[in-house]
Structures
1.
Amino acid sequence: MNYKKLFFLFLFSFLFKFQSLSQLLSNGFYKVEVVNQNPALKAAEGLTFDKNGRGYIWDKRGYVFILETNGILNTTPLLDIKEEVANFGDNGLNGFALDPDFLTNGYIYAGYSVDRYYYDYFGLPGYDPDSSFIDTLSFGRITRFKADISTNYTTIVPGSRTILLGDSIHNGMPVLYFSHSNGNLVFGNDGSLLAAVGDAAAYTTLDTGSNSFTYWNQGLVDNVIEPKHNVGAWRAQMLTTLSGKILRLDPQTGDGLPSNPFYDTTDARSPQSRIYSLGYRNPFRFSIVKNTGDTDITAGNPGTLILGDVGWSKWEEIDIIKTAGLNAGWPYFEGLATNPFFEVSNEVNEDEPNPLYSPGICDFQYFRFRDLLQQESNINPPFPNPCDSSINMTQKHQSYHFRPTLEWRHNQKLTRTGIFSGGTGKGIPININLANSPIKGEMFEGNAAVGGFVYQTNKVPLEFQNAVFFGDYGEGWIRYMRADANLNIDSVFSFDTTASTIVCLTYNEIDACIYYVSFPDKIYKICYPGLVNNPPVSLPTSDTIYGPSPLTVNFDGTASFDPETGPLTYQWDFADNGAVSNNAIDSHTFSPGPGFPVLYNVTLTVTDTGMLQNTKHLLIHVNNTPPKVDITSPLIGTTYSTSIPTLINMTAQVSDLESPNVQLSYSWKVEKYHNSHTHPECDETDPVTYCILPPEVCLPNDTVWYKVSLTVTDPQGLKGYDFVGIPPLCNVGLNNLLFQQNKEILMFPNPIENDQFDIKFFDEKIRTVNKKDVQIFTSNGDEFSPKNYTFGFNNNSTWSVKLNHLPSGLYFIKINTGTNFVKAKFIKL
C-alpha cells in the first residue's frame, strides 16, 4: 500500500471538509474553528462529550447547547436556567457533567451560582423572570436534570430537577465575591461526582477576613458563613466549609460518601463529609484520568485528578492528585513555596482548639492556620505546639503541603517543579531548565492555569499519547507533559501558542481531537490528520517455566498483535548459546547438564511492517523447582473479631529442593478485601512474623475479609505461594465457601500473568470430569461464565485452561467429581 499517497488523499479530504481551517501547527496538528461567534453562544465556558461524540457546551449565563457530531450547533438550548443563575463577574454556570450512563438514564448535572433575586422572590406575587441581582452575596448549588430520550436528549423532562447541594442559602457553596465560586463537575471512574469550589475570597487584595471587596458582612447576616469562617482565603484550610475544596458526592443524593477521607458518620451532608481534598484557591478546571483509581465507589478512589489551580500574586500550578485527603496548601503556600503575605498571618482555625491553652500563661486558644501546615518533607517532621515547642500537637487535621507537579510565574519566564533538599529533606523548588531537575523543558510564563486531561488515544504520534495537556487563559497557550504509566512527569513542551482566552480544554474520544473553548464565543478543535503507526505488542507464553535438564519448553507468540492489525515477524532468542527462531510457535530444549540451577532469559521480539519493535521476556528455570509453601498459621477457619483488634501470628512450612532456607526470601502480605477493592494492612519480610487486624463491622451489603499471603523466592527468582482467607467472626460461612484448602490438584503457574494456566491432578477420578463439571468463581462468589474458558489436555494428569481476558483478581475453581468436589484458588496478576 502506498501510505504516502493515502496520506495526501486523506489530507485533501480533511482540507475540503473544513474550509474554515485556521491554522497548521508546527507539530503536524491542524486547528479548526468549530463554532465562531454564533449568536446563541455569548459566554461559553466549557465543553464535554457523550459516548457517541456529541458535544455539550455550557454557557455561564445558564444555558447548555448541543454540538452535533457534524459540527452544527443546535441553537435551541438543551438546558435553560438563565433566570436561576447569578451571572456576574466570574460567577455563573461554571460546571456541567453528563452521567456516565447518560445515554441510558439521561442525567445531566449543573453547578452554578444562584441569583439572589430568583432565590428570594421566585413564586411570589410580582416576580419578574427578567430581573436579577448582581454584585451581591449568593451561594452555589449543584442540580441534576433528566434529558428526554424520546427527543434524542434535546429537551429536559419536566419536573426532573433535583437539587443535590445548596437547596438552601445556608448549606450551599459560599459566593462572597465576584469570582472564586464553583468550577468543574466531573465524574470519577467509580461513579462518584466531584466538584471544584473556590475559596470565595477577594483576589484584588490580601483577604484574611472582613475584606471590604467581599460580601462577608452580609454573609454573616444571611448565615451563608459562620463567624469562624470570616477568615478570607484561609477557608480553604477548614473542614467545616465547602470553600477551597474538591468535593466528592453521591450523584443520587448529593450526600458525602462514607469512603471520603473526612467523612462524619453523624451527618452525611456536612461539609467535611463531602470533602475529597482541600487547600485550593480557584481550582476552576480539572479532569479525571480514565482507567485509574477503583471502579468500586466504596474504595474512596475515583481516579487521578489533573487539576489547574489559578494563582494569586505570582504562581500558577498544575496538580496531579492520586489519593484522597491531600492538602494543596493555599493560602499558606502558593505553588511550591510559602506565600509571604499569608506566611506571617496569625488568623486562627476555630475548628482546632489548643489543649494547652491557659489564659495568662498561653493565649493560643486555637491553633493558627500556619501551625497546622508544613512543607512536604521526606522525613515528616513533627508539629510543635505554639504553647510549648517541646510538645507535639496531637490534633488530627495537621497537614503536609501536597506540592504541585509544575508551577509557572506571572510575567516572567520561570517554571519550576519540586525536589527535596539533600541536607534537610525539606521540599524545595527547582527550575526545569537545570540539569538535576526531574522535569526537563524550556521556561515559560502565564497568568491563569487551565486544568486539562491525559490524551488517552493511539490515533496520534507516540510523543502525544498519554501526555498530560494543560493550558493558560492569560497567555493563551496549550502545553503538554510527557509521563510514564504511573503519571510521573519527566518533560514539558509547547503545543499551541495561539489558544487565546482558553477556559476549557478536553478531547473527544470518538474523533481523537483536542477541543478547547475560547471565551466568550469560540470553539476550536485540534486534530492530527496523518497516519500513525503504533508499536506492536509482544505477548510470549510457554507451557512451563521450570524443570530438570534436559527441559523441553513449548513457546507461543501468537497472542502478540499489531494495533493496526498488520502482519508481524517474530524472533525468539532462547539465551542458549545463540539459539534463535523466527517461528511464531516453536519449542526448544535446554540441556545445561545436571547440577546447579540455570536461568535462561528468553525474549520474543515482534516487528511490524513499519519496522517498529517490541520485546518481552520469559524466565526459564532449568534444574530448579519453586519453593514449596504451606502456611501453618493462621489456620484455615481462623476468624477475626469485629469488636477488638485481632493478633494474627504468621508462620509457614517452607522447603526448596535446590536452595537452603537461609537463601530464600519471604514476602508476607496482609490485605483487607472490601467488596471489589483492597487495602494493604501489613507487609513483612521475616520468616516468622505477625499482624494486628483492626476490627471491622459486618454490614449487610458488604463483603469484607482479610487475605494473608506468603510469597517465597529462591535465589534464581522462582516463586512459591500460598494464602489463607480470614473472614470476620460474623461471616464464618464465607470462610467455608471460599477458602477450603485442597491438596488434590495443583494450579500452575499461580499467580498467573497471562490468561492460561495448567491444573495437575493427583486423583485419577478427577481427570475424567467434563467442562460442565467445572466452575470458576470470583472472590465475591460470582461465577465466571463457562463460555469464557476452554480446556485442553496436555497429558493424562494435566489440563491446560485458557481464559478469555480475565481481569486481575482472586479466583476459585470448583471441580465436581460426581460424589464430591475439590476447590483450588488462583490469582490473576
Note: The longest helix spans residues 3-17.
2.
Amino acid sequence: MNTRIVFQPKSVLCSLLWFLLVCPLMTFGQQNADASANKKLIANDKTATKTTALPQADTPRPFKLIFEFGGQITSVDGSRPSKFEEYRKVREGAYVRKFSLSANPDASPLFFRFTGREPSERDQRYRLDLGRYGTFRTTFDYTGIPHLYARGARSPFSSSEGGVLTIPDNVQTAFQNATNDQLPALVRNYVSSLPLSTLRVQRHTTDFRQTVNVTENWKLRFNWWNQKKTGTSPLGTGSYERVGTPTGDTFRALSIELPAPVDYLTNQFTFGTSYTRAKWAINADYTFSKFENRIPSLTFDNPFRITDKQATGSGGVFDRMAFARGIFALAPSNEAKTFMISGFIELPHDSRWASALGWSQWEQNEDFLPYTLNSAIVASGLPAGTSVTDVAALPRRSLEGEVDTFSQDHLFTTRVTKSWMFNLHYRMYDYDNVTHHIKFPGYVAFGESFWRTNINTKPIENEPVSFTHQMASAESVWRIADPLDWKFEYKLDVWDRENRQVERSNEHTISTLFSYKPTNRFTGRLSYAYSDRSPLKYNPGILEFNRLRMFDQSKRLRHNASLQWQYHINPQLGLSGTFGYLSDDYDQNFFGLTKYIQAFGSIDLLCNVNDATTFYFNYGRDRYSYSLNQIAKTAVPFDLANRWNRDERDLLDTLGLGVTTYLAKEKLFLDVHYGYSFGRTRLTTVNPNTPSAINVLNAAAYPFPDVKTRLNEFNSDISYQLTPNFAIGTRYIYEPYHLEDYAWDNQQPYQFGQLPATQDGRRFLLLDSRYTGYDAHVWGAYVRFSW
C-alpha cells in the first residue's frame, strides 16, 4: 500500500500548515543574526528549558545529521505465521532504518529536529519539531500502524465500491439446490479453488501541534489530529436453529464470515488559550471532531441461497438465514463539539482552588437502512403501500441522534498545619441522551428471516440511555515523621441512570496509603482500599432471566491492595518491585459474574557495571480469575438443576534480561536482550446438581483443554564506529512463538465434520482468518552516517 500526500494551495487547511510550518523555517537564518541578544532570552525562558534541552556549552552542535540504512533477510516457518507481523512489517532486502536531522545554532534560541524510524515499512514514524524558545513551537507527528489479521484467508466474495460483496449466481444456485448430503462436498470443492487473500487494516495517524507565546503570560495553541483507517477486516454474521432431542437440544450453526471493507476518516481540531499569573491562571479550549465512515453499510450475497425465503415453523424456528442478499449497518458517521474552561487561584493560608467545566454535543444522523432485503418476509404493521425492503416503511428515515454532556471538576486543597494537608474533591459527568424515542412495528429476526412484533410482549423500540455520575471525596495527608506519610480518603460514588436495570447505585470507598522514605536509597508505598457498591433496586426486565445480574450494576464488594518499593543498594545497583491484589465479590445467589480476582507482581534489577556497561533483569507474573454462575436456556421457568459453574484462570509470566556495553575504547557497541512470556488459560466447568435428563445436552458441564502461548525473543545489535562519522553494524532476531488453542488449532474455512456431533455446520462458512505458531529469524546489516 502506497501513501501519497498532496498539498493543494486552494485548501484553507494547507495554507494554515504552510504558514505554521514553512514561515518559521524561512525566518530561521534571519533570526540567527540576533545571537548575542538572544542569549539573555534563553537564560530567562524557564518554560522552554523544561521541554527542550539546550546544547551544552562545551560541545556545541549547530547542525547534526544521522542516517542509517542497510539490508536484511528473513526466515519465517509456520503454517499460518501472520502473528509475526500482526502490528509491524519486517521487510526483506534493502531498507532505511532511521534518520535524524537536527539544528540548534550556538547561542541561538532557534531549534529544529526531524526524525524518522522505519520509513520504508508499514509501521513507520516521523517527527518534526521546530521553534524558537519562548516564542513558538511547531510539532508534527506521523505514525503508521498496520493490523494484519491473516494471510492465506479464503473468501468466496468479490468486492466492489460502496461496500457490496458478491458471489457468482451459479454458486448460490448450486448450493441452494443441493441436498444436505450433497452440500458438504460441493462447498469443500469450491472453497479449495478459491484464491488466497490477505486481511489487513492500515492506520495512518497525523498529529500537528502549534503553540505561540503572545506575551510572557498569554499563550495560544492549536492542534489538528487526523486518523485514516483503510483495508479489510473479518466480520461475522449468523444465527442458529435449535433441534430438540429426548436428552436436550442440538443445533444447526448458520454463519457467514465476511471480508468487511474499512474506510474511516477522523479529524479533530482544537483551539485553545491560556493566561497565567503568579497566583491564578485560566485556560479555554474548543474542540471539533468529525468521524466519517465512507462505507456506511455492507451488502452481501448469501453463499447458500439465490432466492429469498421466510423462516418456517412456529415463530420462525427453522430455515433461518434463508435470504439471498443481506445488509449490515456499519459504524455511523458522527461529529462532536466540546468547549472546556479551567483554572486555579491561590487562596490565603496555603490554600488553592482549581476547577474545570466542560460542555459537549455529539450528533449522529446516518440514514437508516431498510428492515431487510429479504423480500419473502411477510411483515405486519407497515404503512400502506410499503414493503419490508422499503425505507419508506420505517417510522423515521434517520435517528437524528444527539447526546449532550456536561462535566465539572473542583478541587480545594489547604495546608492545615506544617505536617497536615486536607483536600476536598468533587467530580460530575452528566450524559444526557436527547435522541428521539422511536417505536417500530417490528423487526427482522433470526438472520433476516422472520418478522417479530414484540419480544415477550415488549414492543420494539429504542431506549436512549442517560446517566449522571458523581464522585465526592475527602482526603487527609499527614506527615507522621520525616520518613513516613499517611494518607486517608473517603469517597462516595453515585450513579443515576435512565433505561438501565439499576436507576441508582451508591458506592462507598475507604482507602489508606503509607509512604516511607527513611533514606534516599529506599522508598516504599503501601495502599489498601475497600469499596461497597449497592444498587437501591435491581429491575431485571422481561428480557432476562430474573436472577441474572449485570456486573457493572450489581452489588459488589471490592478489596484493592498494592505495594511498591525501590532500593538503591549502591550507586551502581538498584532493585524495585510492585505487587498488587484486587478482588471483586458479587452476590453468589445470582447468575452472571460472581467473582473477579486480579493479582500481579514484578521485580526489576538495574546494574550499571561501569560507565560503559548496563545490565537489567525483570520478572513479572499476572493472574486473572473469573467465576460465573450459568444456567441452560430451556423451557420457562428455568430449572435450577440445569446450572453450572464456570471458572477461568489466566496466567501470564514474563521475563526479560539484557546488557548494553561499549568495548574497544568505546568503538564497539553491543546491545543484547532476551524476552520470554508464557500465557495459560484454564477453564473449569462443574455441575453443582445433576441436570435433568431431558436437558443433559444443554446443561452438562463440558471440559475444555488449556490454551497456552509461549513467546521467546532474542535480539542482538552490534555496531563498530570506524570513524567519528561512520559506523557499521549487524543485528539478529530470533523469535519463536508457540500457540495451543482448541478453538483455532483445527479451524478451517468449512467446519462441517470438525464440529461436535451436537452441531450441524453445513451452512457455516468462515474466512479462516487465523494464525498459528511460528519460528522467525531476521538477519540484517547496516551502515550509519553522522555529520
Note: The CA atoms of residues 183 and 617 lie 57 Å apart.
